[in-house]
Amino acid sequence: MKQWFNSGKPWIWLTAGSVSISLIAVIGLLILIGWRGLSFFWPAQIHEMDVRANDGSISTIIGEVYDTETIPLERLQESGVQLDNFNEPTLDRWLIKIGNREYVPLDFTWVLKPQIVRDETPSDLAKLERSKDGNFYGYVVDVLENGESVANSENVHQILEERIERVVEINEQAADLQDTEIGAINYQLNQLRLERRALDLEGQLTAEEEARISAAEQQLREDYQVLEQELFELRDQASRDEVVMRDMRGVEVTLPMYRMLAVYFPNDMNLVEKLGHFFVQIGKFVSEDPREANTEGGVFPAIFGTVFMVLLMSVIVTPFGVVAAIYLHEYAGKNAVTRLIRIAVINLAGVPSIVYGVFGLGFFVYMVGGSLDQIFYPEALPSPTFGTPGVMWAAITLAILTLPVVIVSTEEGLSRIPSTLREGSLALGATKAETLWRIIIPMASPAIMTGLILAVARAAGEVAPLMLVGVVKSAPMLPVDGNFPYFHLDRKFMHLGFHIYDVGFQSPNVEAARPLVYATSFLLVTVIIGLNLTAIGVRNHLREKYRSLEH
């Protein structure tokens, strides 16, 4: 046994076991998040239940089962709920999404399984997905055009689907018109306002300049009126149709169709149709904007903001980290000051991220950004341009946060390059700068990419500092658009990590929002893995490209 221990094999098995357990834990976590997240997009059955209340009355509930949990009977009794003829120690209860927000106080409700008198899933139950007030569940009764019926009991479902497709297409045209042409006019009007104020502050607002700016504003307003009339016409076309639904109260209600996004009949779907619905919903989730305080809709702005911020951070941190590492390893003397700097760099990696957020808010936003506003944007004051949290300050803050990782990784790569290569290059007449640029940096590029991979992985998942320097619950505009200068680094942005926090902890119904939290978490992990795989591919390419320099 002693000889076996001295051979080192136990430590090999211990290391292998630790790696295996860690790998199993990571894979298990990914499977859990993926299963709970992707199941959010699978079409759930719509139930129609008769539920008996404590007073003996029976009410009807229509909705989707979102979650099921087992609770002790004693807990219910302590809360004042009494169940007759039920003596089991535990019971199940279902979380039902009943939607129809304009007619019920909450669109989610808990139902105790013993209180369910009847539970059916009729094939003609419909789920209306809306842009406002959430989903609506019920039976389709009729479709109206300008108040007149245009359907009968045989074709009402087909007519409804066709009319909703028409409305969605019109709404997309209206949204595109509002975001592009009308948005561009509003942007130009604001630029003219700032130009007038800038000339006024400089004392150069002459009558000719005022006339020029006024003429440009008048032309833009005339163009705006034309586009606004076109927008109103599109909205009038979208509001032409209505749908009559019978809800769980048994009441027929008329709903405007301009708020409709889609209609589904999940109870009537076969497996192929459910698979198609599953992939369509995933596509909508990654390509659409959020709705209803981020509890519905997609997360495209959060995906775009996360990737854009990480790429901007990478562009900032890589050159600074590489230059710092090259100086420390190739030029700085081996003395106490250099050792102190290295210790400081290593200690910076252990500073809590929220401290970086406070530093970024105080130094970059208020001090640097405020100074930029005073120097370059006085016409916009007191409204700040760069003196407010934005995507640029978030990227710079995270660049400082991840800078120690890039420095340490690059230094490790530089230290693995044999000194004989440097000496041979210098002996052949190359300068030190040429040696660094043509030999040392190419050979260290895989280590540089490794540091960048670690930096991206950490930056993409950070939330605390971003809450102070740029991230918001809902951003009306992306940091990139069609208006000059196209990249608007002063704008606030959305982030997948903050979206998870907001939906999971700030939602009016946390339990109901749990599937969306899992879905967004799985998406965030997927984005991080995608960014890392891209960086790993670049690193492997560089490693193969410069492998010949090692020999």
UniProtKB/TrEMBL annotation:
Question: Which residue intervals define the domain ABC transmembrane type-1 in the entry?
Answer: 303-535
What GO molecular function terms would the record report?
phosphate transmembrane transporter activity
Kindly list the places in or outside the cell where this protein is found, as annotated in its UniProt entry.
Answer: Cell inner membrane; Cell membrane
* Parts of the chain that traverse the membrane: 12-35, 299-328, 340-366, 386-408, 436-457, 516-538
Sections of the chain in a coiled coil: 210-237
SUPFAM superfamilies recorded = MetI-like
The way it spans or sits in the membrane comes to: Multi-pass membrane protein
Gene Ontology cellular-component annotations: plasma membrane
Record keywords, A-Z:
Cell membrane, Coiled coil, Membrane, Transmembrane, Transmembrane helix, Transport
The text of the family note is: Belongs to the binding-protein-dependent transport system permease family. CysTW subfamily.
What is the protein name stated in its UniProt record?
Phosphate transport system permease protein PstA
